[in-house]
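User: Can you recover a sequence for this backbone? Please restate the input before giving your answer.

Assistant: Of course. Working from this structure:
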């Protein structure tokens, strides 16, 4: 899994006034959980652009000068009106502890059902996955090259030994449905047959 480095500085005071001063200075207050104690730090707003505004998932190296921590983004709060980042929580990764993360699904191949006039509908763009940090994938490949019209691709077809998908076996990832135009053409053909 790709990693992004965020350079930050540890926060001494964590009250409302100091948090407001940080935001006014173009910084985001953050907390790193998962260690012995929560670690409060701040970083520039621009440092988060490649982490927050992307469909991809990344691990994060938090660089606080003397110390570096491997982490994942756990929670983010946005301002309800301006959409500016107000606060971010990170979770520290331990090499021997499994973590749960939402990983994007990447469609691979061409469905024969789509070539015949069907429409591919992706119902799950991300799937919750549990794995050790080293085994976390960048994306989950979904091969649709066998899907005919009316077929569905279930999470059971996407299994992998290195990670566990945390959804019920009957969860549909994508399906090929008959298009409205094809359905109307079939109905018109049936009506024409009856009229003869």
């Amino acid at each position: 899994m790709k990693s992004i480095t965020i350079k930050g500085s540890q926060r001494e005071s964590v009250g409302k006034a100091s948090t407001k001063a940080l935001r006014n200075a173009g910084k985001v207050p953050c907390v790193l959980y998962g260690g012995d104690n929560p670690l409060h730090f701040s970083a520039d707003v621009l440092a988060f652009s490649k982490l927050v505004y992307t469909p991809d998932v990344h691990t994060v190296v938090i660089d606080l000068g003397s110390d570096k921590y491997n982490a994942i983004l756990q929670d983010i709060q946005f301002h309800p009106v301006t959409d500016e980042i107000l606060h971010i929580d990170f979770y520290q990764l331990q090499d021997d502890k499994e973590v749960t993360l939402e990983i994007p699904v990447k469609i691979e191949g061409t469905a024969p059902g789509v070539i015949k006039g069907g429409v591919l509908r992706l119902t799950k763009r991300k799937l919750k996955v549990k794995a050790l940090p080293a085994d976390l994938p960048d994306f989950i490949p979904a091969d649709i090259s066998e899907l005919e019209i009316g077929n569905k691709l279930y999470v059971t077809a996407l299994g992998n030994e290195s990670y566990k998908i945390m959804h019920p076996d009957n969860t549909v990832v994508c399906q090929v449905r008959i298009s409205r135009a094809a359905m109307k053409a079939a109905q018109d053909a049936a009506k024409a047959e009856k009229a003869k």
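That completes the design. The domain at 100-186 is CATH 2.170.120.20 (RNA Polymerase Alpha Subunit; Chain A, domain 2).
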